[in-house]
Amino acid sequence: MEQLLKYIKRILMIFLMMCIGVTYFGVYFPLKTELEKKTIENFYLVSEANENLVNQFITRCVEGAKSISSRTMIKKQIVLYQDERITFEELVSYTEPLYLEGIFALDNIKSAKRIVNRQEVVGYGDKEKISLFEIREEDKVAFEIIQFKEDFFIRVYSPVLNEEKVVGYDLLLFDLSTVIQKVYESNIHLLILDEKEAKEIRNNPIYQDQKEFLVRTEDTSGYLKKIESSNQYLFLEVDEWKLLHRIKSITKGYAISFLVIVIIFVALTNGLTVYVTRKVMRGIEKSRGEYKEIMEKDALTCAYSRTFFELMSKEGAFIPKVKEGVNLVVMVDIDNFKQINDTFGHAKGDEALIYTADVIKRKIREKDYIIRYGGDEFLIFLMGCTQDIGEKMMKSINDFLLHDKTFEIPLSISYGIVEIRNQDKLYQAIEEADNKMYLDKKGKINNRRYEIQ
After folding, report:
1. C-alpha to C-alpha distances, 155 to 61, 345, 374, 377, 443, nearest whole angstrom
2. So what's the architecture of 306-446 in CATH?
3. Chain segment 229-249, per-residue pLDDT in tens
4. pLDDT less than 50: residues of the chain
5. Within 10 A of 321 (CB to CB), how many other CB atoms are there?
6. What per-residue confidence (pLDDT) applies to 135?
7. What are the Cα distances from residue 418, in Å, to 225, 368, 430?
8. Which DSSP string corresponds to 188-247?
9. Domain segments of the chain: what residues?
10. Cα distance between residue 42 and residue 244, in whole Å
């Protein structure tokens, strides 16, 4: 009897070990691995979305700085001063109210000052933070992200040009805190690195993910990307424990439950694990979808973003299919947009962009695309559409903008339409459409139909 009991115990022990082995290698370990993989992929998408938020904010700051530096009347006074036709005091007296009016129209501005002949003409806010960084006078806009204690700012250098000659420059400081707060809501820590610091991270020997910009170490996961038109790098990192804590808790809880319940509740435990796993996966997928939408949509106009265009063009989404006829690409530019910004302010210029994009979205078809290509330029892809229909559609949009009284400023657009023939000709077609749009705009200028009344 004792021998039989020993035999049964031995069989049960072998069976138990087999159950543990099969469950660990067949269920527990694959689930843990897959969940960790999905979590890392989700972190990558969240980081891309946060990078897009930072880039959009930088773009708005640079565009705002350009609008301040390009105001014609103030620029003329600088030329008069440099020609010794007015005094420095007269230059200050004329510049200050107009300059501050433009500054107050900018969002998130903390400080600003205008420099002419190495003298400060007018200033606003905490100018000391700007003065900590010296920039030589150049003819191109430059920016950098700077940090004071826990606060991040974007410092923008914007030259004042007269006939391509630098006659002065503006230094503006924008508060990045609203964007940083959104990043921190994702439990992600943001760092701004220089070339040397970024190189050290890129050369990390511990682990480099197959994705180009994702770097993992023993303790952290990070997303490293160079900021466009800058020598700085954006580094978004999260503690590995925080990133995988939920996954580890689920899998550890499962392992303990399985060992306690052993064989009797194997099926129940497996069922519960599958349920929890699917729930976590749905949550991850939902989060991925939300951040993907942020990445694909322009934050201001809600049109599709330049990032969306680049991704879709690689997949051949805008290339015509044989059964659907031809596709058209339309380059659209808002007439007098710089004049709107100079006359009514940057905020009104944003409203004009939003209103124009909304009208286009309502006038084109559901299967068409509107993409904010940059500044006040939009790309429209008319899918399965003839040239005649495309011309009528764009004329209808322009006529609606000209005669609609909903927006208090008269608006119109210039555009160029080109047929897309194949994938290799896509960017050539966009360039041709841009040239046609320029000719359309030039014709309006020649006909003296181009000024805001």
Report:
1. 9, 21, 21, 25, 39
2. 2-Layer Sandwich (3.30)
3. 888 898 888 776 555 656 666
4. 205-208, 265-281, 284, 450, 453
5. 11
6. 57
7. 35, 15, 7
8. -EEEEE-HHHHHHHHT-SS-B-SSTTEEE-SSEEEEEEEPTTSS-EEEEEEEHHHHHHHH
9. 36-240, 306-446
10. 11
